[in-house]
Amino acid sequence: MEQDIFKNEIPTYIREILALHGITYNEILIVAPADLTIEGSYGESWAIATSTDLWVIIVDSKEVVYKELAIAYPIQSITKLKNERMAIGGILVACFAEEEQILLRYTNSCSRDIAGFTKGFEKIKEGKFSEQDTGDQKEELINCPTCGNRYEDPVRKICPKCFDKRAIFLRVLSYLPRYKIQISLILLCMLLSSVLNMFLPYLSGNIFYDEVLKKEGKYYGRLGLFILLMFGVKLLATGIGVVYGRINSALTAQVIFDLKTEIFEALQKLSLNFYSNKQTGTLMNHINDDAMRLQYFFHDGVPYFIVNAMTMIGIFGIMLALHWPLALLSIFPIPFIVYALKKLFPRLWVLFSRMFRRNSSMNSLISDSLEGSRVVKAFGREEAEVDRFGTVNQQVFQVNVELRNTTQTVFPILHFFMGTSGLIIWGVGSWLVVIGNITFGSLISFTGYVGMLMGPLQFMTEITNWWSDCMNSASRIFEIMDAVPQVQEKADPIRLPKMQGEVELQGVTFGYEPNQPVLKDINLSVKPGEMIGIVGHSGAGKSTLTNIITRLYDVEEGIVTIDGIPIQDLSMKDLHKQIGLVLQETYLFMGTVAENIAYAKPDATEEEIMKAAKIANAHDFIMKLPDAYNTMIGAKGQGLSGGEKQRLSIARAVLLNPKILILDEATASLDTETEKLIQEALEKLVQGRTTFSIAHRLSTLRNADRLVVLDKGEIKEIGTHEELIEKEDIYYQLVEKQKEALELRGVS
After folding, report:
1. Beta-carbon neighbour count of residue 615 at 10 Å?
2. Which of 390, 437, 536, 638 is the Cys-Cys partner for 710 at CB 3.0 to 4.6 Å?
3. Thinking of the domain 499-571+700-743, which architecture would CATH place it in?
């Protein structure tokens, strides 16, 4: 079944080309599209593999099929199929016995497909290919099944071309039932208020002029009673307005609370790779600005739309009852307004989307500049930052001007059309009064109702502005909620409350980007309680290795096991409760010192927190703070030195009492005295734990049970310090270079 679904991704015209060459649908195993020609211009081509041949199809025309566009290469004649990264995208190269040949050229958007195809091809060549491999490659494809275009965001898998904006509206409407009581009460209040207001023109027109002021009127001379009646209606309307306002305020606060909570919960569920591709300012906009905009939909948009629609129907009904020819004259601008709105709406949608993107870029730049203010000042880059901000701000300005010019041009014209109906009513109505067709009171009532009708009509003309803004915000919120975490827990994970700490990596390959492996075929077995030092040049993959052990990312190939259980099968809660991290960049949250130490164990007692701080050599400096353990510290540990923050991080790890410990450059960028204190704390911490330690100063790893030397993502050496020194290979060279560097600095 998986295979059939996957094959449906192949366009019909590609199947027809293959059919001309005798390749049936069932013979196809794997496919991959490419979007460039061999020369580098935009064009369509495909790589397709059967059990015996690799086909390359160049699509010059979808209407006319040329046989010479399809080229077959026997799989056994290809010694190796490889991807090579280029400045833009990459190339798929077939290695033959005596030469290499470029088969396809592609942009980055196709890199996942090509990478999956390459893996599948190797399995076909080795005779190890199965239907499961077909399904695996299918999941890596990032094409829209409707139009075939590439997804802008492979995580969300939403095609802008096929995206139905009405679906967003319907999805937003699905939130209404949770607020049905409040919205129902708001609607009731608004309807009562509208009904009362509908009586006012009739009272001030027909009743006042024709029944109170005229001698032959039924209520002639009863001005006091009329004023009392008007006062009562106004008072009742005001009371209803107060009730409406209080309910509306409560609903507004509840909607904002719920939306922000849902967005934040969705963000917390996403994998680390999602954050690596997003800017902080943009995500903050989703939580704050978008939630604020969307709440208008619930407490203003829907109720006002319903009430205004019913008000328009009610008013028009009264107008028809008073004088139907005048009523029909009053609505003549509506067809023009509807036509204008139909043309305007798509334009506003685009402008509001562009406005948000530009504002998000500007907010991210401001956030980036403020957080890096120390670097800006140190390098005297204030003017450059102002210029950078000016460029982005200019882009915001331009789209803002375009948006406002559009709305401030179109809406006044629409209002003009609406206003002309009032002039027509006055002109025709006055003539009807003169000839005795209607009374003066009826004309006053009628013009009052026309004035009342203008309010709902104006709301309906400007609803495109509001609707576009709300739906754009909704689409961005749903983008977060719909994003699928790449690292997910199984439906029935294996619980491992007491971990032994045995770690094994078998044939592990991993890369942050497709076709760019950072780790290659890593094989490593670590016993419980063993200390492993990880060394290598910058960019060798040291931190990446620890990231996959903690399952911040899932590996592409191979398997990682803890206590013999594949890490993907383990409960995420059990896993993260028993892996402690001490990183070079310690992050402390805004709160007290005690709260930061107890971050991983919120239920820790004061005694436990203090004991952990003592083991981390942090107790003494904490007691010197103004309020000791209750001292408030700023975000990111503002007010503390680098060494003090690092010792709090160690205390945090001590309190967690993990079975596996990750030390990633835990003593980097510290002075010698502070480093000594932290090193002592770390020596206490690692006892009885499986430890993976990355250190900038190699001498701190001499006591490691084994050292793993990484070079360009591969394990090149494994052994003790003494064994690797004797080999005089990569590790030996690293040690010698570091000795020279330390001697130049006068450090032994």
Report:
1. 19
2. 536
3. 3-Layer(aba) Sandwich (3.40)
